[in-house]
Amino acid sequence: MQGIDFFLGQVRITAHRDHDDLLSAGLGLEGLKGVLASFADPAHPTLQELRRRAIQASWKGIADLGPLGGYGAVYGAVPDVPGREYQAFANIPDAHSPHRVLVQVPDQFDQAHRCLVVTASSGSRGIYGAIALAGAWGLPRGCAVAYTDKGTGSGYFDYADNSGVTLDGERAKRGTAMLEFEPDAASGKGIAIKHAHSGDNPEADWGRHVLQAAQFGLAMLDRAFPEQAPFTPQNTRIIATGLSNGGGAVLQAAGLDEQYTLAGVVALEPNVHTPQHGRALYDYATEAALWLPCALMDASFDATPFARDAHGAPHAAWTARCASLHAHGLLKASTLQAQVSQAYEHLRNTGWTDQAMATAASSTALDLWRVIGAAYASAYLRRGADSMPCGYHYAAVVNGKPGVADEATRASWWADASGIPPGNGVGLFGGTDDSADPALPGTLGLRHLWTGNDVDARALQTSVQALAPRLPRRDLPMWVLHGADDGLLPTAFTSEPYVAWLHEQGRSPLYWKVSHAQHFDAFLSLPGFGDKHLPLLPYGYAALDRLWAHLFQGQQWPAELATPAGTARGAGPLQASMLGL
């Protein structure tokens, strides 16, 4: 087996067969669609229960498994894939905290077409956070799949009982086992989150995380099939794919791949920031948090899902935001309607399209912009749980207030949580007041960290500069796919400037801007929302199919390829013809 020196402790190897497979932990498609798998003893779930629920939660967080969505009928499948898992903690030089790597090796690994898919979790999810993309496409094809959580994940550390999460997902006290995340501060209060509080600015290392996962994958294939070893990039095709933050991670990896490790890259809706071309997530997220509540009151959004309350009226807090913007001199108009128009035009002038604003109504109504800003600001400033910027902190939620989590709540975090609270019994507190616009103080503070020039603002801006991708090699097949209606990572700020930059530098990526697709396939099962949109996953699968045909069947890689012309789903079930594939 080839040597790797970046993983910590022992590699944990488990077999998954007989109703406990790699792709769905034995649940199958129907089981994945159902309610979250239960724990027999909620305070002390078994390792099998934790893994099953972690896989199910990751599927539900990424794919549209609703009755109208077409998964398993129009596109995609969830067959039984028996095999083995190899997992460990890994380390980036100079990092404070480890990241997870996991390799799934199917029993029916295709020895004739040696293939390793490498991926990174979407969002801030845990280790299975890309299984609905990379696992669902690669495992049934006979590829091994290597995952990294890229320094994020749901290994929350709770100061209330000084506990974190071990490699197998169980909770343990500091000092009794190696933990996924163990804050440097020996004492504190509330809950510490690896992405926000590791002190590492992990986003700057996402590309290295992906390349490490690829190395780990090759080494574990050596262990799985010693008679076929060594597995190397020269005899094993390594395909990198990911979506959202995972998409940004594989693009970062492409620019760092000096050893020709990767054979091809497929990135879906990537969080990528190309300086002098696009905009950084922190910039437009904090702008959205501040301005979108007022702008979305424009009459053009009256029929937009999430843009009005349950009675069809404007959200009261959004009306208050217009008044707040006026009071702070950001809007000059004195009447509500004029303020709304000015806020809307402000966002139009900074690059927001009507399509992006309309789907961003969901993120605005769910308060995602402020949540993203608080977590990312803490990561960029390398703050601990007790020193988050703008007065924010995380704590267990008890009767709506900060409290102490019970054992059952703690036990579920690793399997269920998304990696950035609130959710699963953990809340984001602070940064608010008792006014009609309670979120304003923290929101203004987060925005100032981007627009200001004090010590903290300059430190945050420096951290964001470290996220810039490097140029990939000229002959690397690359495909970027993005929903035209993405309101979380708008194409105008992310994929389009990145692809334009590649072309300027003599690269030839394929790019599909998919009509009617937006950021969250999982949201398509929400009433009224899926009517207007298409899932992005089937286009990702199609791109991976085309890359496979190029790498293994000699099919020519196209210089360009027209984006399929899809049609919105409407109120009925998804039909194959709607995808235009």
Automatic annotation (TrEMBL):
The protein's name: Hydrogenase
Organism from which the protein derives: Dyella monticola
Top-level taxon in the UniProt lineage: Bacteria
GO cellular component terms, semicolon-separated: extracellular space
Matching Gene3D superfamilies: alpha/beta hydrolase
Keyword Nucleus in annotation: no
Keywords, comma-separated and alphabetical: Hydrolase
Lineage: Bacteria, Pseudomonadati, Pseudomonadota, Gammaproteobacteria, Lysobacterales
GO BP, sorted A to Z: butyrate metabolic process
Single annotated GO MF: hydroxybutyrate-dimer hydrolase activity
